[in-house]
Amino acid sequence: MIRISNIKIGIFENIDIKSACAKKIGVSYDDILSYNIFRRSLDARKKDNIHYVYVVDVNVKNEKRININRNKDLSLAPDMEYKFPKGECKIDKRPVVIGFGPAGMFSALLLAQMGLKPIVIERGQDVDKRTEAVNKFWKEGKLDKECNVQFGEGGAGTFSDGKLTTRIKDLRCRKVLQELERFGAPSEIMYEQKPHIGTDILKTVVKNLRNSIIELGGEIHFGRKVVDFLSENGSLTGVVLENGDIIECSDAVLSIGHSARDTFEKIYEKGIEMEQKPFAMGVRIEHPQSMIDFSQYGNAYKKLPTADYRLTYTTKKGRGVYTFCMCPGGTVVASSSESGMVVTNGMSEYARDKENANSALLVQIYPEDFGSDHTLAGMHMQRELEKKAFIYGGENYSAPVQTVGSFIKGYEDKEFGEVKNSYKPDVKFVNLENVLPEFIVEAMREALPEMGKRLKGFDRDDALMTAVETRSSSPVRILRDRETYESVNLKGLYPCGEGAGYAGGIVSASVDGIIVAEKIFNKYVE
């Protein structure tokens, strides 16, 4: 097949991909036997010339006669099909997968597809029971510490926007997208530049993925938590569950997510090597989605999908401030996993049709900011901010909020402007100086007006900031061998995904899970 790049079609034009391909190659319409959209992006840099840009793979009649060298936009379509490891795998004990977020799901799926029949241990519940627990927390402020936005089937990503953007260039990314589509995700995730699923559809996707693992001989145990690791001569021999059960194993995928703090403490206690790592903290910031749409697209916004944004700024002191996990047409959600702490995150459904846009507004945190050389000092710092947010929010899981105008000027609000909070169960006006460290306040105050210059209205006075956003990434990295991906001092344990410090989103975590599954398979190939 031939890959055609840089096909531009205006947003007010009739979209006729086949004709555009024929014109680009210089053949007749009927010479295009079939085509497949590989990528579609929206170029809105010039508001008077907004257009889609396509990359299309085409099957052309008498393809050999096409000289692809005469046009820089033509090339041979590469083979992007995922290739399973080859050989016969002789493994004595079934591998265990600890945690069923993106990394754990795809590690377990690949292990199952390769015939290794994994045993999955997930501390939270299946997605239906999990949804009940989460809704109860949002409505009544009653937290289930083992089943919430952070813990349960699908991981934290299930209650998010389901964004599938990634900066990694691994061919396994396509394997992830193909499987997600197969399990119920919209087909456009295969070609949109910024694909997303939405939390409503993700719930079905993760159930279908789980059922596929079971059909292939895998086991999935919900409401079970690993509390210890057994070893002999530096190699893993089993894992201990909270109820006292022991699962003997020689290989376990440690895909626990970034919020399994009790497991981090157990890992530290066991002497499994880990280290501090940079991460980021801040708030969620909300604006009217209509404002974001107009700022990005101008008068053409009604013709276009819900707009997003990504903003970065470096302060005069060299500290990075950036938006993260932007949720168009979404809500800010309560995401606590420990009692007496307030945590926020963002969530959108597939339609992205809610009134507000929200995003994390984060400030970079470095190990020197932790105030301690303890390996878990970053985690302790997260907890400190979450406890403050809980106290200042009224000690009932209401979240502290402040408008941007009041935050910049340093006084407490008395009423909302146009932007109303979407966070539940409730919010309380607070001067965020009382919640956030001085260096975070200082960095955000400097960044907000500058970001407003890049996205008109971003620093509007009534934009609403909800504290705190602390779980953007893991505060630790569990060290692993570069070649085998095993823990550097406990062979057979495979730190994996976002929680272990090796990924930053659904796709990259899933890819890391796939790689770990391949490593386990290849370890026992004869």
From TrEMBL:
Domain FAD-dependent protein C-terminal residues, every copy: 278-472
InterPro entries: FAD-binding_protein (IPR028348), FAD-depend_C (IPR049516), FAD/NAD-bd_sf (IPR036188)
The protein's name in its UniProt record: FAD-dependent protein C-terminal domain-containing protein
Source organism of the structure: Candidatus Fimicola merdigallinarum
